[in-house]
Amino acid sequence: MGFLKRILKGLQTAALLLFVGLCHSSERSPPTVVDLILPADNAALRALAAEIGRGAAFTINSYIRTPPARDQAGDILLVVSDQLLPLLQQHRYRAAFALYTNSTTFHAVARPNSSAVYSDQPLSRQLKLIEAILGGRASSIAIAWQHPRIGRQIAAARALFPQLNIVDEQLADGDNQRRINRLIQQHEVLLATPETALYNASSARSILLAAYRHQHMVIGPSQSFVSAGALASVTSQPEHYAAEIRTMIDHYLHSSKLPEPRYPQRYSVSVNSHVATALGLRIDEKILLKRLGSN
Amino acid sequence: MERSTSLANISALILTTALSPLSYAELWDNEELPMVLTPARLKQSRSEVPASVSVIDREMIIASGVRRIPELFRLIPGTSVGARDGWNYVVSYHGTNYRDSRRMQVLIDGRSIYQAGLATVNWNDIPLAIEDIERIEIVRGPSTASYGANAFLGVINIISRHPEDSERLSLQARRGSNSTEDYLLSNAGQFEGGHYRVSVQTRRDDGFDEDRDGDERRDSDNSEMINLRYEKLINGANLSVGAGYKQGWTSDDFGDFDISAPDTQHKNHFVSAKLSWDLHHNHSQHLRYDYSGQKQLKDWRAMLPPALLGQPNHPSPMVTATANENSRQTRQDLEFQDTIIWSGKLKTVAGMHLKHNRVSSETYYNGLRSSNSVQVFGNLEYRLNDNIGANVGASWERDDNENRSYLSPRLALHYHFNHHHSLRAVFSEAVRTPDLLETSADWSYRVNDIEPREEGMTSGQFIITASGDPDLRAEKIISREIGYYGNFQSAGLQWDVKLFHDTLKHLISDSTALDKFSPENNNRVAQQGFETELDYRPNQAWLLHASYAYINSDSSSQNEQSFTPSNAASAMISYQWRPHSRLSLSRYYSQNTRTGSKKNNFSRSDLRLSHKPLGLQQRLEFAYVLQYRHDDNSELLSDNFYKDRSRHMFTLSLRLP
Predict the structure, then answer these.
(1) Of the candidates A48, A142, B130, B611, which lies 20 to 30 Å from B147 by C-alpha distance?
(2) In chain B, which residue's Cα lies nearest the Cα of A48?
(3) Are residues B2 and B8 in contact, defined by beta-carbon separation less than 8 angstroms?
(4) CA torsion sign, B635 to B637 to B642 to B645?
(5) In 3-state terms, what secondary structure has residue B72?
(6) What is the pLDDT of residues B600-626, one digit of tens each?
(7) How many other β-carbons are positioned within 10 Å of the β-carbon of residue A230?
(8) Among B11, B23, B538, whose Cβ lies nearest the Cβ of A213?
(9) pLDDT, average across residues B51-62
């Protein structure tokens, strides 16, 4: 008898729970679906997709290079990398985000209901890194740039870092390589801007070799440049980018306001130890990060 | 390990197109940047180099205001510089014998300019303008283990400006005392996917003014030269090509018998090619070939008794005849080098160098002579722990001119207080194998066109002759040094101190003058002392460089200490204030107490003032240089005087970036 009683009580509880569950689910609106468009199918990008979805208040459907048909489309479009930026042009989503896009490139193609997390780092952050590396030593820092947007950033940085001797030169089209080389000869530090027209695979070798010849530093613009032979750069890691876009989308879902495009708030420092040794520098990344006040 | 790890070779080192390990950026952006880490990985910092090293960079070259390359070495501790004639300079670390630059190895972009046929480095024959030099590195100490024979007392490594660093167009004119008149035109740009720089220069001056008797000197220089450098990347390998041609005249004083000017016409050329590549980012190699030729044409008429020309029966009491000192030399070098970074602790450099010298001269050799040499070298650098590092290197060399082989070792131990401060102890041995002139000279003036003409008596031979000694051995040096190098980075200060004890033996000390030439391995020198060098650049505006050396020399031959200063010091201070004006002051002092006379002291102050006017985008620059001699002594030899203590030079240059 006691055994039957316990079974009946259990069934009763289960039925109650089922009823409550059904009632609750019938009240919930369907979850927001984010269509995540990746530029390639590989483990790193799949890991990134999983990282974005971790603990998020939205569901992610991943696609490779092409968004789904209109009848299967989700609510928000999220494209990764500059090469998928054209997808922002004709989208029919409530909102669109770009992740890991060059700030200058994004501004050239941005549409009103889109936002982004930039792949590059703000110049002020890189200047802070240079200041930390120099450790109070007086040096002149050269910046060769092209886009007015970068020019404005340099002007703002001058106000932020009055103690740094910043020499900038706007380059038009032409023999930019020679002009950058001249700056490298004349100044101890070259801060490479995130402008791919100036700093790219075909110019990297010449810039880095000129810096070696003169025992001068190249800072920035990216992890790739540091791997190739630049001294150091502020960089953000995949988890930093993922957390940033998750926060932005969450913010949009809660407020219905599209946040402004921005740089990842979290970052770390990448240093090429071989180059540091060649320049006679000993750099401790942890101390640098502390000086930068990074989270 | 200087061959590949010194700054000298950085620009020429191998590049790789290998990709870095895939980063997340590359995964997303497909950003394939070429890795250019090899130069950084191969470079030894100054605190790790197994020798004392000094650097003269472009800023110092400009601040010095000098117009001849050898003058720059007055800035280097323990380095003697002197001019035998207005154009004929001698440079030697720790001096020894002033007669020729025979014990130093001098390289320009890796190519040796030592002329074995006449056993000298002729600084006047270098087809390179001082304005085209990026940097000079001086290895202060024997370096045969890396650079082969002639790197006996040290190595001077001149690195020209990379074409990519050179201005698109550069024009320069200089006028000054002693009829100094120099012009330079230089152009740099791109050609066939690579970068080139071509420079054309003319250079003239009258040399010294007068001899000890107040008579006018004939030691002028008239030179014209063209120099080319081309750099190109081909499938990840780096091709570096150099070429140059120089021609000119130098004048010489009349000798006792001379009745026409014994002037010399010089024609020099060189071609050089180096290909460097990476097998892996930890493994690089290079192959280089150099060819150079020097033609020296000097014939003149002399008047003397016919008996001195081997014609005692000639009826005239005095005859005139044509003598010559013509010579043609060529030198070819082939070198292969392999560098491997085994781990963060272990690096090796190994290679082979083949050399072929050829010289023809009626006067010096009565025909043609040639020699071949082979050198195999290696260096191992091992870091035991954070504090202790070791270098073990050796060179094996055989020269068929001497038919002996030599092994020259070098051992260095470093104690690193930290990354920027180290103590070093270096032991090295080096040799200088005797040159063709020393072993094979058949030196005699064979004269022609004897006048008045007498049948059967139109040619003859000067009765004084000299010959080389085929049994000569190599000169040898055993060097021991301890030193400290510190780089106070935050202050912009570098400081080097060296204590040394060198023993040189089997020295061939006789002068290369016909009446004194009988080369023998019969002298020795012991040198000990200390030297220090300081470089202070707290910011871009200031440059301060200072050096001092004390050398105590003891020798069996006065010749072997004639060029060794007992005290030598230099100081340079340079300040730039905006907009682009610079004032530089240099002070040079050298004293040789062993000669027992103050006549050999050298004391000079140089001032350079330059200004770029604000117009023309500061592409134009005026510069004034004053050289003031504080003493009245003759320079190096006894007939080298300027009339005035002050010499002036004005330079106007235009540079289009």
Answers:
(1) B130
(2) B24
(3) yes
(4) positive
(5) helix
(6) 899 999 999 999 988 777 799 999 999
(7) 29
(8) B11
(9) 94
Looking only at the bridges linking them, the beta strands covering B194-205 and B460-461 are unpaired
Pairing status of strand A76-80 against strand A95-101: parallel
Q: Which of A42, A139, A278 is closest, CB to CB, to B43? A: A278
Per the CB < 8 Å rule, is A208 touching B36? yes
**A-chain residues within 8 Å CB-CB of B491?**
137
Residue of B nearest to A215 (CA): B7
Separation CA B524–CA A27 (nearest Å) = 105
Peptide bond into B452 cis (omega under 30): yes
Chain-chain contact of A272 with B7 (C-beta, under 8 angstroms): no
Q: Which residues of B touch A39 (CB under 8 A)?
A: 28
Instruction: List Cβ neighbours of B265 (8 Å cut-off, separation of 6 or more).
Output: B247, B248, B249, B296, B297, B298
Tell me, what DSSP letter sits at residue B69?
G
Token pair, residue A248, equals 């932005």
Q: Cβ neighbours of residue A174 under 8 Å, at least 6 residues apart?
A: none
The two three-digit tokens of residue B539, written as one number: 């910011």
What number of C-beta contacts closer than 8 Å exist between A and B? 134
> Tokens for B55?
């650097």
pLDDT digits (tens, 9 = 90+) for A245-278: 999 999 999 998 999 999 999 999 999 988 888 8
> Starting from the edge strand earliest in sequence, which strands make up the sheet with B154-160, in order?
B52-57, B133-140, B154-160, B104-108, B111-112
pTM: 0.87
Rounded Cα distance between A251 and A272, Å, is: 36
Kindly determine whether residue B10 and residue A274, on different chains, have CB atoms separated by under 8 Å. Answer: no
Give the closest residue to A245 by CA, choosing from A80, A122, A62, A25.
A80
Tell me how far apart the alpha carbons of residues B88 and B70 are, in angstroms, rounded to a whole number.
Answer: 10
| C-beta atoms of A81 and B28 within 8 A | yes
CA angle B91, B94, B100 (to 5 degrees): 35
Q: Measured between alpha carbons, how far is A60 from B278 in angstroms, rounded to an integer?
A: 46
Cα gap B158→B106, rounded to integer Å: 8
Nearest to A181 among B29, B165, B418 (CB): B165
For A63-98, give one letter per residue: b (16+ CB within 10 A) or e. Answer: eeeebeeeeebbbbbbbbbbebbebbeebebebbbb
How many whole angstroms separate alpha carbon A268 and alpha carbon A49?
Answer: 21
**Integer Rg of chain A from CA:** 25
Which residue on chain A is closest to B188 by alpha carbon? A178
Tens-place pLDDT, residues B246-259: 999 999 999 989 99
Chain B positions touching A274 (Cβ under 8 A) are: 37, 40-41
User: How close does chain A come to B385, measured CA to CA in Å?
Assistant: 16
Chain-chain contact of A225 with B165 (C-beta, under 8 angstroms):
no
> Given the structure tokens 């071989």, which residue do they identify?
A274
